[in-house]
Design goal:
- The complex is a heterodimer.
- Chain A contains six helices and no strands.
- Chain A is mainly α.
- By secondary structure, chain B is α+β, with helices and mostly antiparallel strands.
- Chain B starts with a helix and ends with a helix.
- Classes of the chains: A mainly alpha, B alpha+beta.
- Chains A and B meet through helix 4, helix 5 and helix 6 of A and helix 1, helix 2, strand 1, helix 3 and strand 2 of B.
Chain lengths: ~190, ~170
Amino acid sequence: MDKLTRIKSLLDKFYKGDTSIAEEKELEEYFIHQEVPDELAAEKELFSSFSAGAAPVDVPDDLENKILTSLDKAERSVVRSRRINIYSISGLAAGLLILFSIYMGFLRDNSFRSVSQYAIEDPDLAYEEAKSALEYVSYKLNSGTAELTNLKEVNKGLKTISSIKKISSGSREINLLGNLKKAENIQRQ
Amino acid sequence: MKKIILSLFLVGCIATLSAQSAVDKVFNKYAGKDGYTTVVINSYMFKFLANIETNDPEYESFKKATSGIESIRILTQDGSGSPGFGKELLAELPRKDYEELMTVKESDEEVVFLIKEENGKISEFLLVVSSENDDDALIVIKGNIDLESISSLTEGLDLPGMQGLDELNKK
């Protein structure tokens, strides 16, 4: 029991990396030669593998390089995919924000609010203003169309001209009659 | 590439938005500046005025004339604004978006009537006065506009210049 608590405290030290070589040896001895309670089964495996590893294993020369490059690859791909996500999402968000602010800013602030702030809220004043504006418009409209009444005068003139035309057409018939008389005279001769 | 597309898209959006309603732009430009007076009457006010019952025939004709009107906006200068205000207005307004109803040119004044038509009805009416006597004005009427009832507003009214009109009619 006493031994077990000592081992446990040694294990704590071991995991913290504070053990001396002698103490590690002690742990190794313990786990190889003693029966171990279930709670320390994992440690038993660990330390027995340490002692078994005393026989060195052939390590391929480029193992370190292989590991490093594969690590590099894994890290890079993770970083890149994350970056793409962050970029596209933040870009989208920024774009939407800009569009929204343009919409709000341009449409509302400038054209809508700033002009409608001059909106009249007093009905009497609104009536006066609307009436005078419409009367002004009406007056301008009528003064424009009034010029058209001059056309009436032209029309009157045209009518008199057309009656002159009738006279001239009448005189033409008289001319014809004159010709007839001339013809009769010739016949008599 | 993405950035270019995005920026182009944004520029396009800004362009279309800023191209919208040049009349609003004109109002924004001059509204609140010294020397200019802006008056805005909105549809709510017209609805309110239309609900008032009187026996006044003048008010009735006013109600008739404003029955379809959504808003009236007036921009005038009181003499201390820019001297060529009316000409500026005529230059800034997108005349090609409107149909010219009538232009009256006199020695010291040019009056231009512009309208926008939708389904055979006048939906927007612009009166631009460019004058040499600081009488420059822009009046914008929106809604379903009945020009006939508006022009009949001044019939029988004693406005300066109206006597001349009557005399013309008698000739």
